[in-house]
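Section 5.1 Outputs to date
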Amino acid sequence: MNYNVLTRNHGVSPTFKNQQSRPQVQQQPCNTKLLKKLREDLAGELLAINQYEENIAEITDPRILAMLQRIRDDEITHTGEVLAAIAYLCPREAELRDMGEETFNSQNQ
């Protein structure tokens, strides 16, 4: 099983002191058609989260507010699922994403 999928599913972000200690992911051809569709799905999930956030900011009814918050949280969960699917299909893409996360974390400590 892919290292990146495991870390994402368990909410653990890998931290590596340098590039050489990073686990090497085998280069393999990625299904670019499917990846494109998944990226579009991811964009849709992110847009939905933003829309729910805007609606939540304007709602005062506690029942409606709770419902919208639950749906927003579902959309956030969906982003994790789509990212895990992308990591599964294209480990190199997941590795690059993790490198970006590591860079962000090291620059913002």
